[in-house]
Records
---
Amino acid sequence: MTDGDSTWINKNGKKTKVRLACIDAPEGKQFWGQQATNRLAKILPPSQKIKLRKIGLYEIFVAGQSVNLQMIQEGNAVVYLQYLNNYASNTNQYLQAEEYAKIQKLGFWNQQNPVMPWNFRQGKPSNQPTYSPFPVNKSNLPKNYNCPDFTTQAEAQEIFNKYLNDPFDLDRDHDGITCENLP
């Protein structure tokens, strides 16, 4: 096991590193990082029989259940939107599983101001913009948000923090603060 979103498997007698698609787990030195690593190790012990599905990266199945989705639903990883582009058919499952973990304050989501793993790796606090070199496929998003869709700036900020690249253009001046005209 390397961390909460990648592991080593024995594929045709050869040790191969597998990166789980659609998820990003907290880093080892980040809040919940070690717990996420331990949970993936428990789900995937060395003798565990698995099924792989390649979708750019890999989705791992144990007994017909997606390990990737399980890690999200349990709060051991977050949805990595840039990887959802190759997995459009189940995008809503991943987003709903993450929303469930957030509402229940499970694992990674049991903290006041979570710093997304991609921001943690870059040393950015949670309220800074989360730009990525990968484009967002807007057809995978649940809806198109605009500032008038929100009652408060905090609601808009929550959506902004959830999606890479600000696909809704909620932060027009790129200062990390969305819909600044809202209360």
---
Amino acid sequence: MGVEMGLWRAEGDKLTRITPAAIGLEALLESYIESDPSMLGETLLIIGRQVPTAHGGFIDLLAIDETAAVHVIELKRDKTPRDVTAQTLDYGSWVATLGRAEIISIFANYRPGVALEEAFVEQFGGTLPEAVNAAQVFTIVAASVDAATERIVRFLNEEFGIPINVVFFRHFHDHGAAYLARTWLVEHDTQTVATAATTRKTESREPWNGQDWYVSFGESPDGRQWADGMTYGFVSGGGEKWFSRTLKNLTPGSRVFACIPKVGYVGVGTVLDEAKRFDETTVLHDGSATALTALPLDGTYRRAGDENDDIAEWAVPVEWTYAIPREQGFWKPGMFANQNTAAKMRNQFTIAQVSEAFGLDD
């Protein structure tokens, strides 16, 4: 049975049915959705319009949601039932092959001069996930579809769990006012999309170059101070095993991007030696190897119970290529941050922004 949408004007105890206008709606829907994608029932960021595929044809609209799943939005227009469903799935099969870099490129063509990472923060208030395009969602937009299309979509969605749906819009005019009404063929459940987004994380992450690391330099009033790390060349972490264990992944020759949480990036440098307990670490100072504990440090790096390696502060010597005081910390929306003390730096947007700001490309 086809989905029917009705609208009535209520005047006292009298109802008058308003007849939908069928002329020109589907020609306008693409622009309507582009200007306000929330009309599809959730917050989306449009990343492309009339996107050419590798196999011919153009996708009407591409969008991403807050999980970075990609939404393929296709308007029915004058397509036959089998054509609109098959074409949507065909486009989806191509979209599923795209990595993070290709998604970023599509957005760059759509909104030149705006970074996807920055647009994502503006739209969703959070950082672009590391796994982009880990899942795809297919939406057919129509004023109406026939019974055959409904059967196909319900079969794919309900029997096989493929996130494909039809959203219906009808245009109503009444006493000089225009209204747009919406309903879904299959009950709309965005939670299914979020769950499905775990399926392709490995393939959709940016590649790691094997060299670059993010390091969180967590300052505290009565603890470590960035002024020490910048002046004497080291990064450190400790207090619990969680905070020191990832530092041990850094190896000599690795490049580190040091960031003070809630401040920004403050240094880029090369690791000189493996992680050791702070009280066993030496750095190159005034041309000679000097124990960190022998230097006039501003911060405090001892704590109760730190005879236990899991509690102790650990440090990694670093030769800074570029380092700045915390007051000059560099940060832009969309840049990478992580709760670990050290993490693989895959985020090319962050690397590029920090490199430009610090003049590393020169």
